[in-house]
Design brief:
- The protein is α/β, with parallel strands linked by helices.
- It has helices at about 1-15, 15-25, 30-40, 60-70, 145-155, 160-175, 175-185, 185-195, 200-215, 220-225, 230-240, 250-255, 260-280, 285-290, 300-310, 315-330, 335-350, and strands at about 40-50, 55, 75, 85-95, 120-130, 130-140.
- The protein contains 17 helices and six strands.
- The chain is elongated, with a radius of gyration of 24 Å.
- Pfam families: HEAT_2.
- It comes from Nitrospira moscoviensis.
Amino acid sequence: MRQLSKLLVVIPAVMGIWVNAASAYREYFTPEQKTQLAKIQTVLVDAIALTDKGSVDAGPLAEVAARRLGELGYTVVQDSGKPHDVVFRVKCEQRKTWEGTTASGGDADLPDAPSRLWKGPACQLTYLLGGMKIKWQKEVRTDFEDAAAAAQAAQAGEPGPFAMAKLKDVLEKYEFPLLLTAEWGQPDRLLKLLDAPNTSQSRKIKIMSLLGEMQADEALPKLKEALKDRDLAKQALVAMGNLGKDGIPLLVDMMNTAPQVEVQAAAAKGLGQIGGIHGDASVVLPLLAKLNDPKTDWAVLTEVAWALGKIPDKRSIQPLYDIDKKLQAIRDPENVQLKKLKEAVFWAIKQCDTWDQYS
């Protein structure tokens, strides 16, 4: 029973992360700052490279940052005397010094958040707006913590330059330009890159994810277009779930007719997100119809249950209890998908069956 009570606390907290992240997006900025961010065009790149023997040439690191920001259409300068709208700082060290995170939980728990424990090679990425350091802070690291040992194993000579070269390689792959563009609230740049013929599939998926987090309604036409691409359809549907109500009919259709189970599941998830963000109960009946369909795959049912839990509605209570009863009769402890489905239904019931407390 104690473990069950812990589950009741943990699952709602986990499921609530997406709501908080979406609804609180960039809320720490003032209206004036948001206006400044939306108009950013010229970026001053300020790079520094520190090894155990002191500072070394940070030019290669600055070049990577400048070139990759240029892919998003930004004008990049490296002379602080030239006019600029924002300062992007890249501090790379052979042995990282701790600068602290801004908060715990949420973004602070992501893999690219600054790590208190990591002492090896790392680049810390920050930016300044109007001379003020903003909360946004990312960190990229090498896959080794001891630069000396790694350099020796690779027969690469001095560990300092070796670590900087490896960090440069990491910066080549890390999508900081996309993250900054989303942070600055400039969806048009992301949409342009999404439409570019040379943009990789993995990058398109990241862009769509960010557009969803930004709740960029102007992205809806492009996301609908992305549904034609099997490799992008799932992420497009999830992103649409963070946008406006205009996407509901399409999401319902995809949930019911898509031949791929993963696409149906993504559509159900998107409906839950829309319902949760906008408080739109119109998605409940289509979700209940899918819940009651005996042909619905368990993976899809799992997302349907999570979705119903995000939109507490009296109409969901009995159908959820009915499916819970059926699931409890199935004994298959090795079935991972069944376990996930039971957890989702259990959580959804707890979210929906609270009406008697307030009646």
